[in-house]
């Protein structure tokens, strides 16, 4: 995939010119007369996302026009060059756009790569071999490293649960660890009880495929500790609180938190950031059988807090709780968890804008600034203390599913915060991990959300080349 972004331009690279609405004539300056005449004859307007290949005297492509719209349209659309990247014919292309800023050039290069992603596990959906010369000031390997992490997350999410169960999630962790010389291990089945992870065991014990906690560690032991925890529910039926069919159809993506964490870990490992990286993924399947946990059960967590189960479909926070408790025992410098946790987050912010929660104002500001800079949208949500009583039932320390449905994403975040005490900074991401419709740079299907912003923050906070 990295070869799709070239470091040095060959002499025959075909230029791509950005043509804003009202500025098409300026974009045609210096091109062969036949190319300019063709653009005029086609009535090309420069509308954002539209493109046109211009022929030279011999009929071969002399250039391409990429509609650049106006400022309002560009503010509403990420990776606009991706519309052309998807359709570009084979060849080597170069971006002839000196008006772009450094950040915009990087976005264009990344958008080229992200738009050319296709999930090919079950059918051939490859695109023509169209490559882009890295724009001036853009390091191609750096951009490709980020794209590879995104592609890893997308591939894992897009794979159906039949072939992406807890064991296959474990295999993905071990494969990533092997590629980068990291140590990996797992705790499987009833051993979870013996090792002190009762919530992970309770969620996964009803499934034919046993639950597990998968871990990976890499880096200098004296380096700052960065720990990533990802929800790895391979498929979520809802348990005894069974989901209706319409809500179950996309549940192969309920391991999107794990996939995103692995995508982020891939970026960190490839960049060799100077951190002590730890990854923890509770990998389970929330199924229905005689062994399933029941509404009304009270379970004891690794931390010792008791949890009343008022809805077996609120299982993600349970598996995260045990994993967060383990992660917190090491007092990491930064602890991040990512999960496809609540429908309430989608109601509040929709599928594109991922909410995050943290008590650390400096971290929140860094994440918000990075999200804007790299076009990886995030929005800080409040850990509102007034809602704490909602997660405190009468007979246990915590309630996994407060009645009423109000503030569902916030109460889930408050629940998770009860399992984090020692970490110097903690952030929780309630992501969707799915593109419900195709857009430039974002094909329909599994998606990485928040990881590019996180990678930027981690690299800047601890030093290193993002």
From TrEMBL:
InterPro entries in UniProt: Leucine_aapep/pepB, Macro_dom-like, Peptidase_M17_C, Peptidase_M17_N_1
Record-given protein name: Leucyl aminopeptidase
GO MF terms, alphabetically ordered: manganese ion binding; metalloaminopeptidase activity
Residue intervals of the Cytosol aminopeptidase domain: 311-318
Keyword tags: Aminopeptidase, Hydrolase, Manganese, Protease
GO biological process, one term: proteolysis
Pfam family membership, one: Peptidase_M17_N_1
CDD domains: Peptidase_M17
Organism: Oceanicella actignis
Family the UniProt entry places it in: Belongs to the peptidase M17 family.
Coiled-coil residues: none
Entry's Gene Ontology cellular component terms: cytoplasm
């Amino acid at each position: 995939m990295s070869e799709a972004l070239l470091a040095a331009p060959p002499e025959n690279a075909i230029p791509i010119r950005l043509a804003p609405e009202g500025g098409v004539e300026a974009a045609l300056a210096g091109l062969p007369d036949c190319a300019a005449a063709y653009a005029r004859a086609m009535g090309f307007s420069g509308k954002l996302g539209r493109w046109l290949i211009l022929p030279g005297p011999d009929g071969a492509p002399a250039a391409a026009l990429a509609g650049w719209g106006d400022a309002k349209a560009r503010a509403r659309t990420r990776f606009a060059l991706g519309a052309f990247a998807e359709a570009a014919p084979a060849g080597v292309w170069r971006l002839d756009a000196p008006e772009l800023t450094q950040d915009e050039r990087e976005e264009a290069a990344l958008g080229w790569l992200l738009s050319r992603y296709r999930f090919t596990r079950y059918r051939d959906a490859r695109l023509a071999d169209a490559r882009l010369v890295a724009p001036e000031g853009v390091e191609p390997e750096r951009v490709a490293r980020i794209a590879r992490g995104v592609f890893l997350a997308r591939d894992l999410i897009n794979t159906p649960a039949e072939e992406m169960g807890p064991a296959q999630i474990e295999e993905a962790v071990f494969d990533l660890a092997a590629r980068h010389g990291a140590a990996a291990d797992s705790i499987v089945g009833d051993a979870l009880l013996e090792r002190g992870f009762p919530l992970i065991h309770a969620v996964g014990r009803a499934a034919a495929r046993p639950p597990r906690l998968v871990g990976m560690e890499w880096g200098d032991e004296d380096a700052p500790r960065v720990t990533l925890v990802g929800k790895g529910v391979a498929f979520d039926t809802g348990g005894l609180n069974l989901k209706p069919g319409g809500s179950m159809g996309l549940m192969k993506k309920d391991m999107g938190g794990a996939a995103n964490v692995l995508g982020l870990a891939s970026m960190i490992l490839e960049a060799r950031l100077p951190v002590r990286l730890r990854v923890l993924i509770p990998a389970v399947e929330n199924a229905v059988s005689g062994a399933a946990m029941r509404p009304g059960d009270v379970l004891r967590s690794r931390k010792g807090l008791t949890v009343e189960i008022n809805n077996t479909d609120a299982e993600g926070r349970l598996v995260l709780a045990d994993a967060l408790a383990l992660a917190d025992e090491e007092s990491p410098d930064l602890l991040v968890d990512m999960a496809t946790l609540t429908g309430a987050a989608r109601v509040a912010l929709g599928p594109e804008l991922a909410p995050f929660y943290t008590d650390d104002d400096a971290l929140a500001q860094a994440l918000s600034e990075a999200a804007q800079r790299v076009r990886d949208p995030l929005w800080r949500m409040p850990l509102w203390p007034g809602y704490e009583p909602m997660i405190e039932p009468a007979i246990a320390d915590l309630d996994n599913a407060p009645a009423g449905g109000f503030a569902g994403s916030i109460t889930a975040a408050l629940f998770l915060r009860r399992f984090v005490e020692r970490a110097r900074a903690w952030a929780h991401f309630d992501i969707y991990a799915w593109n419900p419709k195709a857009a430039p740079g974002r094909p329909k299907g599994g998606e990485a959300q928040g990881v590019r912003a996180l990678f930027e923050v981690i690299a800047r906070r601890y030093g290193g080349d993002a």
